[in-house]
Design a protein that fits this description.
Elements: E1 4-9, H1 13-24, H2 26-33, E2 37-43, H3 47-54, E3 59-61, H4 64-69, E4 75-78, H5 84-95, E5 99-102, H6 105-122, E6 126-127, H7 138-145, E7 151-157, H8 160-172, H9 176-185, H10 194-197, H11 200-214, E8 224-225, H12 233-241, E9 244-255, E10 258-269, E11 281-288, E12 292-299, H13 303-320, E13 351-361, H14 366-376, E14 381-386, E15 395-402, E16 405-406, H15 407-418, E17 428-432
Parallel strand pairs: 1-2, 1-4, 2-3, 4-5, 5-6, 8-10, 10-17
Antiparallel strand pairs: 7-9, 7-11, 9-10, 11-12, 13-15, 13-16, 13-17, 14-15
Length: 436
């Protein structure tokens, strides 16, 4: 049977990994797919570098439109990134009747609804395993492996850069800025790390997982996003003393009143496996009603781990290339006419528990005033830690862990606390997730 012909748009870190792994494991991949899979055309602005990577036998062009226009190309791999040019090329590929494989979580999180609808109308597939958690097959697990389950919640460490920074802060007692510079020196963080450290990258991925888990449209604009830039080394230490570790989590949860979709630092009990995921590794926990809790762990980025996911998508498409489009796995797991309109909750309506760090005057009555405000709002305290003031010090840290409370209520209480004359600095608030 004639090999499936693939056009590759962008041969950077991931693209070169795809080419290398596909070539190295071609015999094994063909045995799995039932026919050969060949990259026969590559588009990259740096054509000279691209030719050096792929060698003879592969057409290299500087214009991606030439790949899409080639009638012999069956599948287009988009590895350009971003929202603009990538969106245009993906839509052109779909219009041309070509299947698409992409690692572009930003594109799908923002424009996924439009892209998936276009693909459904045209009868082609858009596969995106590599868009979430690199080499970890979490998309396939959610779409297929856990299809018997009513998914209850997902919580994931889905950004390796921030996990590396938090690991360095914990292991070496570093402040955020120092840990970020180390991450940049080692190549874990970009020169401009904003998307990572502000939680945007993780929110793109959480948005996709939420849509697949609950059968709702892709709605990145409704995600709550908070990064790690305001965390202090002292918060890492206090969390440890209380039996927790701080991780940047992407969380999506089904509740009786809607879907939670949020990314923020969270205290996680040290006894949870996910709390012990260190360095640049990723991990995703999924809670299903039938299977219980499952955990998926591995490399969330890198040339060959991400290439592994891209090639898995190529194999899936090759197997289903001639299948009736109506009998393929839906892009977002649920049939397009059966998507839910459950609302994504605003953060003010989310119920969770909290870690609060207050810098307070070391004098009598301070604790009573703080706990009194919590009690007036019906918020109970789970644990408390107070650092003893050193000799000559006139202020100290007061640490409180609360039980569950609605975020909007907590916001109101924090506003009142901040106005107390004995509270001497902005209050640090970190949400707590037991993941039980």
């Amino acid at each position: 049977m004639k090999a499936i012909q693939v056009g590759l748009l962008g041969i950077g870190t991931v693209g070169s990994g795809v080419f290398k792994v596909l070539k190295r494991n071609q015999e094994e991949i063909q045995r799995r797919a039932g026919r050969g899979i060949e990259i026969t055309m590559v588009a990259d602005l740096d054509t000279e570098r691209a030719r050096a990577l792929v060698g003879d036998g592969v057409a290299v062009v500087g214009d991606a439109a030439q790949v899409i226009a080639n009638p012999d190309i069956d599948i287009v791999i988009e590895l350009i990134g971003g929202y603009g040019v990538a969106r245009k090329l993906v839509m052109q590929a779909i219009d041309a009747g070509k299947h698409v494989v992409t690692a572009n979580k930003a594109l799908l999180a923002v424009h996924g609804t439009e892209i998936f609808e276009a693909a459904h109308r045209r009868g082609v597939m858009v596969a995106f395993e590599a868009a979430v958690a690199g080499g970890i097959p979490i998309i396939k697990a959610l779409r297929e492996g856990l299809t018997a389950n009513r998914i209850q919640w997902i919580a994931g460490i889905i950004n390796g850069t921030t996990n590396f920074i938090l690991s360095e802060m914990r292991d070496k007692g570093l402040d955020f800025d120092v840990a970020l510079k180390e991450a940049q020196r080692l190549g874990y963080a970009e020169t401009d790390p904003t998307f990572d450290i502000e939680g945007v990258d993780a929110a793109h991925k959480a948005t996709l997982m939420s849509a697949i888990a609950f059968g709702i449209p892709v709605q990145f604009d409704k995600a709550y996003v908070e990064g790690i830039t305001k965390l202090g080394a002292q918060d890492i230490r206090y969390a440890e003393q209380l039996g927790y570790r701080i991780k940047l989590l992407g969380i999506t949860k089904r509740t009786p009143v809607g879907i939670e979709l949020r990314v923020h630092p969270s205290l996680v009990p040290t006894k949870r496996l996910i709390a012990n995921v260190e360095g640049a590794m990723n991990a995703v926990m999924v809670q299903g009603d039938a299977v219980g809790t499952t955990l998926y762990y591995g490399k969330g980025a890198g040339s060959e781990p991400t290439a592994s996911a891209v090639i898995a998508d190529l194999v899936d498409i090759t197997r289903l290339h001639t299948a009736d489009a109506e009998h393929r796995v839906p892009h977002l797991a649920f049939q397009p006419d059966s998507m839910s309109n459950e609302p994504v909750l605003p953060m003010s309506e989310v119920v969770t528990s909290y870690y609060l760090r207050l810098r307070v005057a070391d004098q009598a009555g301070v604790l009573a005033k703080v706990t009194g405000l919590l009690a007036d709002a019906g918020i109970s305290i789970d644990a408390m830690l107070q650092r003893e003031a050193g000799e000559g010090e006139k202020q100290t840290d007061l640490i409180l862990l609360t039980h569950d409370v609605r975020e909007g209520t907590m916001n109101e209480v924090l506003t009142k606390m901040q106005k107390l004359p004995t509270v001497l600095a902005p209050i640090t608030r970190i949400r707590k997730e037991e993941l039980a």
